[in-house]
């Protein structure tokens, strides 16, 4: 039942999702460090969604009798500003959508309906991430990064956290 190109694409997708999950994990910690806990929570949601995507790719690879290759497409990078963070994530999401749509076409040509549908579903999810990132960048451009950051703090604490 295995189609080598489809399994290869599924493994590449798996690696992209693993990379994205760890990138969002790093972002969450950086944002916590910056005191932007609302954005940190959003990044944790994105991380969980990317892990869910990786699970779906693993399941499909296994269904096709392939071997999941758990690895990272690239290492996470720490951003120095919110703008840099969002721009880097946007570039990654654009790359993912383009790849998933190409992989969906290849799966269609191989008569692999399940893989095609999976790639299309994940592409739609990534388009949602892309739209959110574009909106955040527009907001930062409109009101400035400092004002945007102020909106992303849920509570300002005067006390040191207890150990």
UniProtKB/TrEMBL annotation:
GO terms for cellular component: cytosol. Transmembrane segments: none annotated. Its cofactor is heme b. It catalyses: 4 Fe(2+) + O2 + 4 H(+) = 4 Fe(3+) + 2 H2O. Keywords: Heme, Iron, Iron storage, Metal-binding. The keyword Iron applies. It comes from the Bacteria. GO terms for biological process: intracellular iron ion homeostasis; iron ion transport. Fe cation 1 binds at residues 17, 50, 53, 126. Fe cation 3 binds at residue 49. GO terms for molecular function: ferric iron binding; ferroxidase activity; heme binding. Its EC number is 1.16.3.1. Fe cation 2 binds at residues 50, 93, 126, 129. Residues 1-144 form the Ferritin-like diiron domain. Belongs to the bacterioferritin family. Iron-storage protein, whose ferroxidase center binds Fe(2+), oxidizes it using dioxygen to Fe(3+), and participates in the subsequent Fe(3+) oxide mineral core formation within the central cavity of the BFR protein shell. This is Bacterioferritin. It comes from Paracoccus suum.
